[in-house]
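A.,

Following up on our hallway conversation. Structure tokens first:
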């Protein structure tokens, strides 16, 4: 209701002033005792004697109050949009721009905890990865320190890269090759040779215990990396919550400022008409 009354007051001002000028012009043009007429003469007729006492001053105050209210509303909206943008960039920054330091500190602390969690598990995952690669080099004869994750996974699945038997990766490749080329041993050998690790990439574990320790360390590394990814989701949620919070705070501040404004909600009307002698009259009314 308050916003509707404010809009009505804003609309009443230009309508009333237009009626004043148009009505005064019509009356002045119809007067035969005037040899000539001009807008300047009409404005001259709007003298202090033709208006109620203090009406012009009250009208000026009403217009000034309207401009101030409009500027305040625009400023609040602009501040709300900036706070929303700040919160999306850094949770808590939007609350800080609105003067809510306590709420801002809560989001700052949460954001710091989220990224501390991310860095902690990224470092843990990297250290464990270095550890299981070192285990593979010392206990399986691997000569490389960088390879894709599929290669390191195979080291945990097979005791050796070459040979026969269930623990040999080569045996698995040959079984797949026979399924693909059942009548062509040459094609089978070519297919296996293309995929079988060789040279520094070949491996053979010194013991089953060493391979088991390698699998456990690699699983710890993978789990640490997965946990660090949760921080990304938490950071997104923290930004959404901060953005919502800034809009709630902004609305509360706007409502508080509106309720503290003197005379808010009391309708102000600016009325104008013309007198029989062609002069104009301007009235500022306010209901209580």
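Then the amino acids I'd put at each of the 288 positions:
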């Amino acid at each position: 209701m308050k916003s509707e009354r404010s809009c009505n007051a804003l609309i009443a001002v230009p309508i009333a002033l237009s009626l004043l000028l148009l009505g005064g012009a019509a009356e002045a043009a119809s007067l035969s005792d005037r040899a000539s007429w001009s807008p300047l003469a009409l404005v001259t007729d709007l003298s202090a004697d033709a208006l109620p006492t203090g009406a012009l001053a009250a009208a000026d105050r009403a217009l000034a109050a309207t401009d101030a209210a409009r500027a305040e509303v625009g400023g609040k909206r602009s501040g709300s949009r900036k706070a929303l943008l700040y919160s999306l960039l850094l949770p808590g920054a939007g609350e800080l721009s609105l003067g809510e330091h306590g709420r801002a500190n809560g989001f700052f602390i949460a954001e710091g905890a989220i990224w501390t969690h991310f860095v902690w598990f990224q470092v843990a995952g990297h250290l464990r990865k270095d550890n299981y690669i070192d285990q593979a080099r010392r206990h399986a004869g691997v000569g490389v320190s960088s390879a894709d994750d599929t290669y390191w996974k195979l080291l945990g699945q097979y005791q050796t890269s070459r040979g026969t038997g269930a623990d040999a990766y080569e045996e698995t490749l040959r079984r797949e090759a026979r399924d693909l080329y059942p009548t062509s041993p040459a094609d089978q050998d070519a297919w296996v040779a293309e995929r079988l690790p060789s040279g520094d990439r070949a491996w053979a574990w010194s013991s089953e215990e060493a391979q088991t320790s390698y699998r456990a360390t690699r699983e710890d590394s993978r789990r640490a990396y997965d946990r660090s990814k949760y921080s990304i989701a938490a950071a997104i949620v923290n930004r959404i919550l901060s953005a919502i919070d800034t809009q709630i705070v902004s609305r509360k501040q706007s409502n508080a400022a509106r309720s503290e404004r003197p005379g808010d909600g009391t309708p102000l009307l600016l009325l104008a008409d013309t007198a029989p002698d062609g002069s104009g009259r301007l009235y500022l009314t306010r209901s209580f």
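The first strand starts at residue 268 and ends at 274. Curious whether your intuition agrees with the design.

B.
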